[in-house]
Amino acid sequence: MNRRPSSPVLNFLLLALGAAIAAFAIEEFLVPNTILDGGVIGIGMMVSHLTGAPLAVLTVVLNAPFLVLGGMRLGKGFTVKAAFSMAVFSACVALFSGWANATDETLLAVCFGGVLLGLGVGIVIRAGGCLDGTEAVAILLSRRTNLAVGEMVLCMNVVIYGLAGLLFGLDRAMYSLLTYFITSKVLDMVESEMNQAKAALIITDDADQICERIYDQMGRTVTMMDGSGLVSGPKKVLYCVITKFEMRELREIVDSVDASAFVTILDVSEIIGNHIKQNDGQLEGGAR
User: Fold this and answer.
1) For residues 14 and 184, what is the distance between their CA atoms, to the nearest angstrom?
2) What integer is the mean pLDDT of 188-209?
């Protein structure tokens, strides 16, 4: 793909760093001030607060089913990285739980906790992992609907914050929602607008296999065109619309099939039509 290959060791170091930063934000800023994160971690925080069960244990237990589901549908690479991220996160949560709280000021906890949490989660996602099982569910559901990953996560979190309002009071729910918005903004900055649509142009000699892998693993359709290189001769040119969240998965697919493929990624300002989704095994428009 004519790019510098990423180091697996560096990826796992980044996963560990991001997970540790996120755990620090949760334990030192959010938990002491009864401010909830979203997703499975937020549910674990509520259960921990009500029952006294360790958040580190609850994080593993609650994430396990989603991790299995993600492994079945999103591939071995994603599962390994997600499991590693979650394990480091849980271990760091247990470690930081014994530390003194960073602050008892709620607004400071909202601001600094939200920034650190967004930074940590963003680093993990950039390295190809995830900390919350709902992200895996959101990826799967987004491939069956017209909603982006971020929109799916937001819908799930609105329900969780509604429960937080009933359990802990409306002010805790509003503080949690404000933290979520701060986290989302920082996450977008780190991940460079991960849900922004991108157009991938792939020039390759193994077009059929790449198309099949993209469709089977990512649920994306591909338009295939004939091309000719000045030196290399006849080639196939593939056109596929993805999100930034899926760029790493696309790179891995292309690299595994044709390491000499030439790939360019372009910004997409608007999409008209439903040609990029797989729905119940059927293609929606576009060309395969």
Assistant:
1) 19
2) 79
